[in-house]
Amino acid sequence: MMPYERFDAWQLCHRLVLEIYRFTKAFPEHERYGLTAQARRSAFSAAANIAEGSAKRGPREFRRYLDISLGSLSELGYTILVARDLGLLSVEEWRELNELRDNAGKATWGLYRTMKPGK
Fold first, then answer.
1. How many Å apart are CA 81 and CA 78, to the nearest integer?
2. Would you call 103 exposed, middle or buried from its count of C-beta atoms within 10 A (0-12, 13-18, 19+)?
3. CB–CB of 2/51 below 8 Å?
4. 11 pLDDT band (50/70/90 cuts)?
5. What is the DSSP letter of 5?
6. Where are the beta strands (DSSP E) in 1-119?
7. Measured between alpha carbons, how far is 115 from 46 in angstroms, rounded to an integer?
8. Which of 17, 57, 63, 102 has the fewest Cβ atoms within 10 Å of its own Cβ atom?
9. Residues 56-103 pLDDT 10s
10. Residue among 114, 116, 113, 102 nearest 13 (CA)
11. Which of 4, 93, 18 is nearest to 55 (CA)?
12. Total-model pTM
């Protein structure tokens, strides 16, 4: 097990990445470089920044990466909202993804709060 895999925040973000990939497979081809890529990139970024940050020296540096992860989750929230409003996701699909995103965000925020600034 890699060190970052022990964090609930990473586990939830990783699950979110897999679900985003699964749902965006059904997006139209003309969205390949638009919403499909954006949703995948922001979801992946959330998980990848937790993994990368956990390998950095000290809680201050890790906290910076967690902050980036939280930003990526927020970006993903807007991306899936647009996908819903354009009819690329059903309301139920959007709810499912948004709930996963919200849970990943809460766990990431919780981990962020445990990292003491100034070290």
1. 5
2. middle
3. yes
4. very high
5. G
6. none
7. 17
8. 57
9. 988 999 999 999 999 999 999 999 999 999 999 999 999 999 999 999
10. 102
11. 4
12. 0.94
